[in-house]
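Slide 14.
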Amino acid sequence: MDKPALSVRGLCTYFYLKNRTVKALDGVDIDLFRGRITALVGGSGSGKSVLSLSILGLIEKPGRVVKGAVILENTDLLALPERELRRTRGERIAMIFQEPTNSLNPVIKVKEHLFEVNRRSARRMEKREALPVFHETLSRVGLRDTGKILESYPFELSGGMCQRIMVAMGLLARSTVLIADEPTSSLDLTTQAAILKELSRLREDGISILLITHDLGVVAQMADDVYVIKDGRIVEQGTVYDVFEKPKHEYTKLLLEKDTGLKWD
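Slide 15: predicted structure.
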């Protein structure tokens, strides 16, 4: 297989609380490859979202990445100065956040959020050519009356609409690597299908996608590779076929049993 587009090695992220230290990530290794969707699955509190934020350098106090490396095309993101890391976000690596209401500025119009993504994109467009693309992209994620939405503020829209706007921002970034943290949560089945279709298109364009989800049905449908995380450690990895058909770790078997009702020996 080709060299990974993104490689995480020995990543440790700890949260220093008053009376104890929580090892949210404790030596995580993962690889993302060009044109493949890699799923990260695990229960609540397993470390899925902490991993995505650690990769992007977005961990806030009392948390801290204490060691490890995040290699993106020969660059260790953890070693970059903050100014350069900010420039790398969007140009080379982008993320669809799990909580859109916390990620969108409520007093900035939707179109300005999209223009900011365009400005950071390695494939930035002039304003006159960007606006038609904005309309098209919002339509692709199941939004109607796109002109009105572009002129709206996030606080004027529903949570589901904001979620779709976050997905649209991820599609517009056209980065080398896209991290999608529960991109279809709380959306209706029709919209979920549309968003998964767009992620598949990005894969066909050679973009590497880290799909973070608890939905094993989505994993079975979309993923090429799977990592299972528990208590901040990767306990199983393999192709989607290997993990679903021949799970080895008891935690993986438990997740599959909860989702399918089937039991593994």
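Speaker note: The longest strand covers residues 21-32.
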